[in-house]
Design goal:
With about 675 residues, this protein is α/β, with parallel strands linked by helices. The chain has 21 helices and 26 strands.
Length: about 675
């Protein structure tokens, strides 16, 4: 049987639940007050709007009816008779809205459905029109037969965006001028205060451009029904990012002030990029309005007893976990959440119940970006490393019973000729000195006798950023053959002979710092070398059978993020197994006031980009990074982006990993020795 309007209609899932036709519960006991009705035809809508699940094509292929969605949920079909029967039984509904679609029959069928609802229910009825197919005479007929509101889904704030997403850009039938002409006609027919416009925030417009359109609608005697863009599956924009929460909150507040005639676009101020910086009201008055939470509730057509909004569309533009338009009054926590979002901050659900992160607020756009990257990279598992070169204990993990199982050894003792600006050779002082091959062998013997797993061989560099590795190669080979230890070497720059020699000596992992800025190489490392020299050494190591684990020190140029992206590109060109990311720790810098760590947001953003670029490479957050709140935030950003491993995780991170549906294990070896070491526990 063919189900088609006017005998059949689609209703939103929320409407179906409200009418008792579908089972389900609303988050926080929300209620739906407007019965959303959608015309339905075999083949669906004839338009091709890029952001809409009702678009009849996806990537050039026709979609079947069962594939259609709208606002990310199903819209089940029911007979019009059944819907009217159930609507009359409801004690909740305060309005009905008939949404038309682009189809030859929609004009006639809209009028038929309107007559039925006006004759057989007491609900006021709105029309969400299709300007492409409607004429002024038909607008008048809708008013004559009882429609009390007429709205137009213009959606886009600029004509070029409208054309790109609804018109010629997608071979669609809609035209910007026709939509505005229809609204002007409706304003004359329905009168002041009885027209409205749907607008979607976050489709490429600036806040200023959106505010100007909202003001235009207000000047025409209408109100704006605002939505936050949320990508819909099977639409052309399904991979586009949702509207930034801060942008939407500012636009919501501006919309409320304009529609309530409390302010005007001409009174508001904007930054150069079009962001709202002043709402045109005294701060104390604006604060009072803000604290009511009302500007952030869903805006739509009013109820039959003139409450501001009946069409509250529960969670219509965001899931319950990220409510954009609140379908109920906001409480104090909701208002605080909105305030954080307007400041670009968020307290993700995954950390709300974790005591260690009670006071942590994160950058909202970075958190969402990181989560999207993790979702695409499909990273379900993470390793936490607790290497034994220092004592480490949190409420979740400890390495106290695994001391010295993988120590760090310096073959130059505390000596380093480079005296880099951030280190001055002081980092070597925490390592076991082994300045001769004989001493190195003795150290290895001690590690083996105490049940150690291996060791990291490092040291200070000479003026060419090279370590005296060649004289130690026979001893390293002897250590490998005699004790079977896992061996990692932090190499510095290498020639072919050294790279090959390390491989032949039994070294499993070679680590090398990759610097992507000639200026950093000169001013921080004091080297007469270039970026190309570092890539040549990387290529020499990558040509061996060793596991290659290059390091990028974030903020190496006196705390600036300068050559990191170039270094990432270099690494992406070579077959490395792991990338280890650390943050500069200028504790020993001569001028510490000139040498600070970059913000956790800067480093977190870079980690997310590494994850996105190196989908098949293990990305590791290494030991070196500032502690305290910095470490908490950075570890959270890394976790959200789908990082593979974290060394010395901040307290509480393992619990958050569980909240984010990671499985995990804990290992006591150096993170560069990934896939080796002792696993103490794992969760599924």
């Amino acid at each position: 049987m063919i189900k088609s309007s006017p005998d059949y209609l689609r209703i939103s899932l929320a409407a179906a639940m409200t009418l008792g036709l579908k089972d389900g519960l609303f988050h926080r006991n929300a209620k739906l007050y407007c019965l959303n009705l959608l015309l339905t035809y075999p083949g669906g809508c004839r338009a091709s709007c890029a952001y809409c699940g009702l678009s009849r094509k996806k990537n050039g292929k026709a979609l079947s009816i069962k594939d259609e969605s709208f606002i990310r949920v199903e819209w089940p079909e029911y007979s019009t008779e059944l819907i009217i029967e159930k609507a009359n039984e409801s004690e909740i509904l305060e309005r009905a809205c008939i949404s038309t679609i682009t189809h030859p029959q929609s004009k006639t069928d809209t009028l038929t459905v309107l007559k039925l609802f006006k004759q057989r229910t007491s609900l006021p009825v709105s029309i969400l029109s299709n300007p492409t197919t409607i004429k002024d005479q038909e607008i008048q007929e809708l008013a004559d037969f009882g429609a009390d509101r007429f709205t137009v889904a213009i959606d886009l704030a600029r004509p070029d965006l409208f054309d790109a997403y609804r018109g010629k850009g997608v071979h669609g039938p809609h035209r910007w001028e026709k939509y505005w002409d229809t609204l002007e006609s409706a304003a004359k027919i329905f009168g002041d205060g009885r027209i409205g416009v749907h607008l979607i925030s976050g489709l490429g417009e600036s806040e200023k451009e959106m505010v100007e359109v909202i003001q235009k609608v207000s000047d025409m005697g209408g109100s704006t029904h605002l939505f936050s863009f949320n990508p819909e599956k099977n639409s052309l924009l399904e991979d586009q990012q949702p509207c930034d929460a801060g942008q939407y909150r500012r636009t919501q507040l501006a919309r409320f002030l304009i529609d309530m005639k409390m302010s005007n676009a001409s009174q508001m101020s904007f930054s150069e990029d079009g962001r709202i910086v002043d709402f045109g009201l005294e701060k104390n008055i604006l604060e009072e309005i803000f604290n009511t939470g009302v500007p952030f509730e869903t805006c739509g057509c009013p109820s039959k007893d003139c409450k501001p909004t009946a069409c509250n569309r529960p969670f219509g533009d965001g899931p319950p976990s990220d409510i954009r338009s609140f379908p109920f009054a906001l409480n104090k926590d909701d208002v605080a959440h909105v305030r954080r979002q307007m400041s670009g901050l968020i307290v993700p659900n995954a950390i709300k119940e974790v005591d260690q992160f009670e006071d942590i607020e994160l950058n909202a756009s970075l958190w969402h970006k990181a989560q999207n990257i993790r979702e695409k990279s499909k990273k379900p598992h993470i390793k936490f490393y607790l290497p034994s070169f220092k004592n480490y204990s949190t409420s979740e993990v400890s390495n106290h019973c695994h001391q010295r199982s993988f120590p760090s050894v310096s073959i130059t003792g505390a000596k380093c000729q480079l005296q880099c600006e951030h280190c001055k050779g002081k980092l070597l002082e925490s390592m076991i000195p082994a300045e001769t091959p004989e001493r190195l062998l003795k150290v290895a013997e001690g590690i083996a006798k105490t049940g150690g797993q291996g060791m990291l061989i490092s040291g200070g560099s000479d003026r060419n950023n090279e370590l005296p590795l060649k004289e130690f190669l026979p001893t390293i080979r002897e250590i490998y053959l005699r004790y079977g230890l896992n061996l990692a070497v932090h190499t510095g720059l290498v020639d072919d002979e050294t790279a090959y020699g390390l491989e032949q000596a039994g070294v499993q992992t070679a680590m090398i710092d990759i610097i992507g800025s000639n200026e950093t190489i000169r001013d921080v490392y004091h080297l007469d070398k270039t970026v190309a020299d570092f890539e040549v050494s990387l290529s020499r190591l990558a040509a061996t059978s060793m596991k290659i684990a290059p390091h990028i020190v974030m903020g190496l140029h006196f705390g600036q993020m300068k050559g990191e992206w170039t270094a990432l590109d270099m690494i992406a060109r070579h077959p490395v197994e792991s990338l280890i990311l650390v943050v500069v720790m200028p504790y020993y810098a001569k001028h510490q006031n000139l040498f600070v760590a970059p913000s956790p947001e800067e480093t977190g953003e870079f980690i997310a980009e590494c994850r996105a670029k190196l989908q098949h490479t293990e990305v590791i957050l290494g030991c070196a990074r500032p502690g305290g709140e910095y470490k908490q935030k950075l570890d959270l950003y890394a976790l959200a982006s789908g990082i593979d491993s974290i060394a010395f995780p901040a307290d509480g991170i393992i619990e958050v990993a569980g909240e984010l549906n990671y499985t995990y294990d804990v290992q006591y070896t150096c993170c560069s020795m990934a896939k080796t070491g002792e696993s103490i526990h794992a969760t599924i």
